[in-house]
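To whoever picks this up:

The parser on our side crashed when reading a file containing two proteins. I've narrowed it down to the boundary between the first structure block and the second sequence. Both blocks are reproduced below exactly, byte for byte. First block:
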Amino acid sequence: MTITNEQTIPLADERTPAEMAQAEREAREARIRQLLREDDELLGKAYDGRLVRRLGDYMTPYKISLIVAVVLMTISSLLSVVGPAIIGFAIDRGIRAGSFEVLRFWTIIFLVTTIGEWITNRSRLRIMAFVGTKIVADMRSELFRHLHRLTLNFYSNYSVGRLMSRLIGDVGVLQDFVTWSITGLFRSVFNLVGIVVAMLLLSWQLALVAFAVMPLMVILTNYWRDRVRQAYRATRQRLALINGYLNESISGIRVTKSFTREELNFRHFDDLNQSFFDANVQATRLSAIFFPGVDFIGSLATALVVGVGGWLVLGDALTAGTLVAVVLYVERFFDPIRELAQRYNTFQATMAASERIFELLDLEPDLVDDPDAVVLPRIAGEVVFDDVSFAYSRDGRSVLHNINLTARPGERIALVGETGAGKSTIIRLLSRFYDVTGGALLIDGHDIRRVTSDSLRQQLGIVLQDTFLFTGSVADNIRYGRLEASDEEVMAASQAVGAHAFISRLPDGYDAEVGENGSNLSVGQRQLVSFARALLANPRILILDEATSSVDTATERIIQQALDTLMQGRTSFVIAHRLSTIINADQIVVLDHGRIIEQGTHQELLARKGRYFNLYTMQWAAQRQPTFSAN
């Protein structure tokens, strides 16, 4: 084959190390860009009046402290501004005049102003540290309460990593803003204006000489501002990705080790870490241009002032003390400019963080109690699904279709079907984690959309398929739904579900720490604790979502024996893949694609030889198959 192009594409193994490194960098950046598109961040303005007003609402309870801090800031700024002038007076009226008394007087004045500046600054910082921390604590508490008001639909579409970024990262940015930047901004502006006024009063000629370098400062500032906005945004975005991935990796460490994914995870984290490093390097390069540039311009201004001022002093048109004072002012003149430049990124980050936080706070739960909702009285436990249909989104496909089901008080209802048949959706509707989109769901004749969610759920006992235990002791977890329960009641609930035996064998018994999400307990033990937790609440309706799916056969028998007794007098809804656990149910409801296709007792459904018969006989045959082991 003849190749007519003079330029050919080199094979992978023919590339130079530099070309391979470049290709790797481009691939990494492509992966990072994809992640950034999935979780884009607001760029933010340097100032947004709407957001500042909302932040001001959180500051209102502390306005007296803020006023005191501003007064202290004003005093400290005034004392700071007069310092160089005092030195100039000491030189002209004390040293040059040969008056020791005058020199001593201005020296004492200088010491007093220095001590006064230190005291007022220290007091201001203490006040603002308290106010900033308190405002952020208030906001974090409001966020936490608001997150608990949001429904499950929100958490299905919002990652935990992003929420942690809001609660920790964004709120931390606001703390930095409130604590340091608010009074810091006014202090920088006040100092800058004060220095300009002082220089003009002392020598307007030298002031104009110092200001001659300002065009250079404007050019440098505009160059830095236009680029640092994107650079610091990139670092914040990549840090958020790292935090999210760390949260996911640590939470799923058991799965990672089970599938030996460590090396792949290392490489992915290295990509994120390297991208964060590159973004930081770019931001650092900009800082390395701007801040040394400010220092250079400041030195240039000082040199011009010394040169022109010295010439004026030699011509007796200016005193030496005034020249020294102006030189000191020139050196201080660029300090607030540096601070304001550094604050710019803080302001921008604050506006972006505020936008995200307020956007989260403004989210209204898609399931709220009716304004006329009543408290559900003590129920007997009759549950009626009256032609119920449901879709998870308004324009989405329905997952339940015209469900008609009646459970009388004390009955045990078993829900059976393949994955995706709608079993879990039914109990989510019963728990009112979602509202029905068609028909009505009644408990003791009350439409659950017309009663308060709290009064409904207080009479439900729920054990979900995914068992979750909270950090604390075993007793704390069992008592989670009924804090006033005595130790004896906790123990009785544990004995009823067969958990007391293994709890007693723990080093500290009921006081043993379960670890994060029950990491110190086995899957079966966690399930037993969750059973005890649900039963201690003494519910009128008991909901078990594949609650025995994670336990071994021996433990399942213990649980089944306890449930047979504990379900007496309670309406129970049971989802189980092991059909052997529901043969004594009063009603077995077979679901398929959101519809009830069979309904009856175990014997009735077997006699029909329909879908339930097929499911049951397949499981029975699978259980009877011999198991072979290889030596």
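<<boundary where parser fails>>
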Amino acid sequence: MDKPKILVVNDDANSLFALTNLLGQWAAQEGYEVVAARSGEDALREVLMHDFAVILLDVNMPGMDGFETAEAIHQRPRSADIPIIFITAFVADELDRLKAYQRGAVDFLFTPVIPQMLYAKISVFVALATKNEELRRQARQLSQRTTDLIASNQRLLREIEERKTAERASHAKDEFLAMLGHELRNPLSAISSAASLIGLPGVPADSVGHAKKIIQRQSRHLGRIVDDLLDLSRAMSGKILLNRAPLDLAALLNTALETFHATGRLADYDLRADIAPCWVHGDATRLEQVFCNLLDNALKYTAPGGRIEVICDVDDDELTLSIHDSGVGIPAELLPQVFDVFVQGTSTLDRAQGGLGIGLALVRRLVELHGGTVLADSAGPGEGSTFTVHLPCIEHVNESKVPLMETSEQSKPAVLLVEDNDDGREMMAMMLSCYGYPVQHAADGFQGLATAAAARPDIALVDIGLPGIDGYEVARRMRANPDTHHIKLIALTGYGLADDQRRVMDAGFDMHLVKPVDVDQLLRAITECLASSPAAVRT
């Protein structure tokens, strides 16, 4: 802590010397410093630079006298409270004393100064300044301690909240993984049982046919689960790729509803649909996914016999799609979180329809990618829910149909299948052969190149993850070889991110199909690929 300072102001050099030396005798004992000034102006400069415990100020000075100097010192807020003791050789009358006190004086000393009196007076002010500085130091320490405690408390509260958030996220993920295991085991169990049934002797033909349909249906269900997981990863990493084009959304919604009706999903519900003609610039697959996820959500949380309303309207170049249900509703505390990943309400219904609880998170991301918004609303438990999607719409567009290739027996194109998975390769080759396609196949990249150069097929279906050289290198080498550069190439792969599609097209492929691919999708892709000259991308 700095020592208290005493300022002595006197224009007479001898008087100034005498006073400073007298004060200097007690400086070490009392713990203060002495500063000297020869004029009022010098005193003001010192006051600007230092704080003083007391000022000994000569009254009679040329230029700026003691009264004027005192008044100037006390006009400055920082020095307004410095005590000033006037020193004068004349006996001050009552008017002089009044004038001095009005200028901020606390006392008078008359010359010649009596040392004991001077010591008594200045020691009081030095002690007072020391005590005030100590109080200020304690106040600063207390303020700093308070600030530190507040910061520590805020940090502790943040850590507690972060821990709670992490625990909630961990619990939600644990529930998600448990649900995923349940969702995977159900179709796998059905597929395993159906496959075993087909292999039993003496099984009726209709039972075999029914078992095959079960395998197909449950395989598609597994494919949807994998797609949901991949979409979740893409949504969280921001790598969802949209294939946007003018789209008749009303036709898409009606087709989706027909599919739900055909599968019997809506048989036990009172459905009302009011869909106005509307066009958007969007990805048909993704917007169908948005609608199906919202409708699935309504079915999941509405008991059979409940009401579901689908309303689509257009106003001021904006499309509004609402799906309302009379189901279990959404609690107020859950409503702001329904679109978050891993958040799922507790259903009071049988969850026979399944699901991973990530559908609404995907809905929000897909809608936002289309430049729209999605909102959830509910009056509370038992009051049903309403999900509303807002999308920018466009004017009606005349669709241009892609001419499909004639697929008579004589015109079926030759196909080369390059796939390292033996079971997958064998089944796809058999499936294409059943539809009349001449098929040759290869188990790795080098064998695929050799077969392509020798057989010159019309189209090659190439897996990306091949041993030896991968599918990208196979495509690059086929494009570089004059004997095979004309062959249409479709990538068959489990990789479906935007970067994967870009790498596929950069390598020279014409199309990109993500496994699993059903037969209808594969046949349609082959036809469209051979019918179109420019490269296209499919997911």
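After patching the parser it read the second block fine. The first helix runs from residue 13 to 30. The chain is about 50% helix and 15% strand.
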